[in-house]
Design goal:
single chain; 260 residues; mainly beta; nine-stranded antiparallel sheet; 4 helices; 11 strands
Length: 260
């Protein structure tokens, strides 16, 4: 693997040992099992946004598991709303999508570490088009940087990414872990058109300790450093209860009353 050289981002931190690397990778696998809901604020890079749909600048999103999302712009206007809990279950639906046979994360138990993070991850239903912008799926579930399970003997170069540096930090008031990564030869991005850690770069990734989501992605050095925009996310709330009407385009109370 071609590992680009660069000055240390955290020069006063020791080189991460195998225990720290394993814990970071387990955190990256764990996002689907760490929250029942999220209320987040996302800064959408200009090159990744969709202004025609109101998906530009800073937006807030309420996300319930992997089944529902509602997005508001900075003015508080609803710009996107989607849910899967009331999706049809016809024969055509079952044949057309894997969400009919891949179970949600809430119904599957992974293999956990002693820290209650995910050591080996089962195959679960993805977001299945729930995200208004594709790249959000990788930011909210950064499993691509760790893989679904540890590599054989936990050898660093067999993992999807090589971890150059690790440091536990406080990021905007939240406990987080920062890592400087390079992509390895086994790296497989979740999305064909988006990569969290571009090839031949050193990339800073900050993961939230409590949710496993990406709080910051910043490409530090390499050929893609100018082309890959910074990604920023803030967590406003976790595990709040959201009723179905937050996510449904037409609530049942809005339906016309038919009287005989």
């Amino acid at each position: 693997m071609d590992v680009p050289s660069a000055p240390l981002y955290f020069p006063d931190s020791p080189m991460p040992d195998s225990t720290a690397r394993r814990k970071f990778r387990a955190l990256a696998r764990s996002a689907p099992w760490l929250s029942t809901s999220l209320n987040i604020e996302i800064d959408i890079p200009e090159e990744l946004g969709d202004p025609s749909r109101g998906l530009a600048g800073t937006v807030t999103a309420k996300l319930r598991q992997r089944e529902a999302i509602a997005v508001h712009n900075a003015a508080g206007d609803l710009v996107f709303q989607e849910e899967t809990f009331s999706a049809q279950r016809s024969r055509d639906y079952v044949a057309a999508t894997n969400s009919s046979w891949k179970l949600p994360s809430t119904l599957i138990t992974p293999v956990y570490t002693a820290d209650h993070l995910v050591l080996r991850r089962p195959e679960i239903a993805g977001f299945n088009g729930l995200m208004p912008l594709d790249y959000w799926a990788a930011v909210l579930d950064p499993v691509e940087i760790a893989g679904r399970e540890p590599a054989a003997l936990d050898l660093a170069f067999d993992h999807p990414t090589y971890i150059h540096e690790l440091r536990e930090i406080s990021h905007e008031g939240r406990s987080a872990v920062a890592a400087v990564l390079s992509a390895g030869h086994t790296y497989q991005p979740t999305l064909a058109n988006f990569v969290l850690v571009p090839a031949e770069t050193r990339t800073l990734l900050i993961l939230d300790q409590n949710t496993g989501v990406v709080l910051l992605r910043q490409v530090l050095t390499g050929s893609e450093a100018q082309a890959a925009p910074d990604l920023k996310l803030r967590i406003l709330a976790q595990d709040e209860y959201y009723i179905n009407s937050h996510f449904q385009k037409v609530h049942w109370l809005d339906q016309p009353v038919v009287r005989s």
